[in-house]
Design a protein that fits this description.
By secondary structure, the chain is of the alpha/beta class. The chain has one domain: Ribonuclease H-like superfamily/Ribonuclease H (Nucleotidyltransferase, domain 5). It has seven helices and five strands, in the order αβββαβααβααα. The radius of gyration is 20 Å and the shape is globular. It starts with 10 loop residues before the first helix and ends in a 10-residue tail after the last helix.
């Protein structure tokens, strides 16, 4: 599969997590139990050291190969594939605290009326309930945690996360160029997010458990009867 760089060592664990994610993706839309995918990615801040030559008829814009590094910011994204909604936050760091506050905003603002948010994400060490207890009071951490059902993609199975698709679209349409400040990245990401939400751009996920059992048959443990 595209994006699969390393074969999983524990095949049975991989297929179990994979089939869990695929089962969640095929559930009908229910606003009480929205399926939301979450991912994050760093963005390097780069400043031009020389003025670019503008585009003109018969000639593309010319950018010098030299640049100046201005640090890194981190992009958090969550999308609801069945409704065409997505939410983006650009933060200065990539910590448990940043993640905890991001999902708290999902719970208290974007999905405040939901009974339970089914959150699909990778198993990065910052993406855990323990992060909530390290950031909030026990009562607040438990309140936020109870709002979610965490559904983890298997290790080396990030391609199962539809938020990764949204990140690729964001980078391809908006952020695949030099930006030197976090404010500029925020401005561009906000405009892109508003545009995509107004379009109600959805993801038509086609890969099913039945497909997995055929196309990824070699991963399934061999059962001797």
């Amino acid at each position: 599969m595209k994006g699969w760089l390393i074969s999983p060592r524990n095949n049975s664990s991989f297929v179990a997590h994979m089939e869990r994610v695929l089962d969640v993706y095929k559930t009908p839309y229910d606003e009480r139990f929205p399926v939301v995918c979450m991912d994050e990615s760093p963005k390097q801040l780069i400043k031009e050291t020389r003025t670019a030559l503008p585009m003109k008829p018969g000639s593309e814009k010319k950018i010098d190969v030299e640049y100046e590094r201005h640090g890194v910011c981190n992009i958090f994204i969550a999308n609801e594939p069945l409704t065409g909604k997505r939410y983006v936050e650009v933060k200065a760091s990539k910590t448990k605290k940043d993640w905890a506050y991001f999902i708290k905003v999902l719970a208290d603002h974007h999905y405040k009326n939901a009974t339970k948010i089914r959150l699909v994400m990778d198993n990065l060490n910052t993406h855990s309930p323990s992060a909530l207890y390290e950031v909030f009071t026990p009562q607040e951490a438990k309140r936020v945690w109870d709002k979610f059902e965490f559904i983890y993609t298997p290790k080396h199975g990030s391609w199962l996360n539809m938020a990764e698709i949204e990140l690729n679209v964001l980078n391809g349409q908006c952020l695949k160029r030099r930006m030197d400040t976090i404010e500029k990245v925020r401005e561009e990401a906000r405009a892109w997010c508003e545009f995509r939400n107004n379009m109600e751009a959805k993801i038509n996920w086609q890969f099913t458990t039945a497909d997995a059992r055929i196309k990824l048959k070699s991963l399934y443990p061999k059962i001797e009867v």
